[in-house]
Amino acid sequence: MDNSTSQDLFYQEKSTFPFYTSLIIFLFSVFPLTVIVLYKNLSTNLLYVVPFAIFLLFISVATKLTIRVDFNGITHSCSPFVSKKLLTWDEIEYIKIMKYNPFFDVSRGVKYSFKFGKTRTTRGNIAAWITLKNKNKYFITVIDPESMQKSIDVFSEKNKKL
Length: 162
Fold this sequence. Notes:
Elements: E1 11-16, H1 19-39, H2 46-62, E2 64-70, E3 73-79, E4 82-88, E5 92-99, E6 109-113, E7 117-121, E8 126-132, E9 137-141, H3 145-161
Parallel strand pairs: 7-9
Antiparallel strand pairs: 1-2, 2-3, 3-4, 5-8, 6-7, 8-9
Helix pairs in contact: 1-2
């Protein structure tokens, strides 16, 4: 249950895959399957390729990453794959907002990286790398890093006064 009020809310953003990413996913899923079906002369199975491709396009368009920084901690979700997850301030060891290369470091999507931990990336090349005290890691896309850093700094100041 969410106990924060609008006054406690320091930062919130929602991001999705850029349309060109969805289109690339669609094309790279449809083209090879279509070639295989046509090469093997399985024209009746082409009907199975189209719904699969439309499903992949729908998933890539429907994916929404939400990140929220408030008095309770950092909440993130990546629907329809990951439900809301609260990382409380007591759990967090450190947060680093950093640039990354989406082609070589971490590609788009919801996955696990040995270096970065659980990744939720949609667009851009800036992310919050969050390490918990239990050594679990999260790597989450950030669209407005300056605002997020300000909200983390505000919380840090309030936390010192507690």
